[in-house]
Fold this protein.
Amino acid sequence: MAQIYVSSTYEDLQRHRRAVCDVIRKLGHIDVAMEYYVAEHQRPIVRCLLDVRHCDVYVGIFAWRYGYVPPGESLSITELEYREAIKGERLILPFVLDASHVWPSRLVDRGDSGARIEALRSEITSRFVCGMFGTPQSLALEVSAALAKVGHWEPTPLDYEREQRLINTWRDARDPIERSRARSALVHMGSPRFAAILKDLVVDDARSLSTSMDIEDLITLCGNRAELLAIFQEVLRSGDAVKRAIVVFSVGELVLRGLRPADSVVKMVAQQANDSAGRVRKEVAHALGKVKDAGFGSPAVVDALRTLAEDTDADVAQTARRVSGGTREVGDDYR
């Protein structure tokens, strides 16, 4: 069950908001929206941004209105919520009204507000893979499909005695099948103690990894993206090239699964284009190719692929050129 923040202007999108909140509840999640606020001793914008920070997913709905700009602020509440979601590295699912959809002229901003919503829409559609909508029903379908894509099974209830038994089995059992079953059960129940064990294993320079399983399970168990980012950064500073390569590989796999990588994660991977190990630089090229193909390209991605395409290691350079589009110049898609 996830807490999902629904952000949009209000008067023009009331029916759309109701449709989205309904589908969120039908999927078994909690919708967090301004409609449910009661009188509190807080400025509305303070409460809104606090809710964005505490939610797991941000759903942004953008039509042709920029929205209310509170006194003392330079941005509308809707844009402030969007910026807060980016800042907090929430999972962002943006939906933009199709420009070809017939829309009442009274619900279209003009002048300065019109220019600002145009600029915001342009930024969002260039930065994210957006769902396009027209009617409330079409938006509900888009939101349902997006949430299903990033959704997950409910974890097994945490039982501390069973957790300890499984940890003992994972540590001590000689049968690899028994160890694998214990590991899967610990991950599925969201074991915090197993997460701590894996973190120590991953970041300990004295212990090596042969596969990506430890990191993949840690990704599943981490409480939030900020925690995971800190672990990735620590591993990428380690002296173990295999660990560094596995972290980069894991980021690429997350992108293939349909998860949008935070800008900070993309920049972190792009910086490894200068890694001392050729195997790591090759993995960076693979991962950034997946980021690019998923539509999450950025100047950092372009610059890193351009650097890798000129790498002194022929294998790295060939990989970078291939994922960048064959014989085309690296960066053509972003001009």
Residues 1 and 153 are 9 Å apart (CA to CA). The first strand starts at residue 3 and ends at 7.
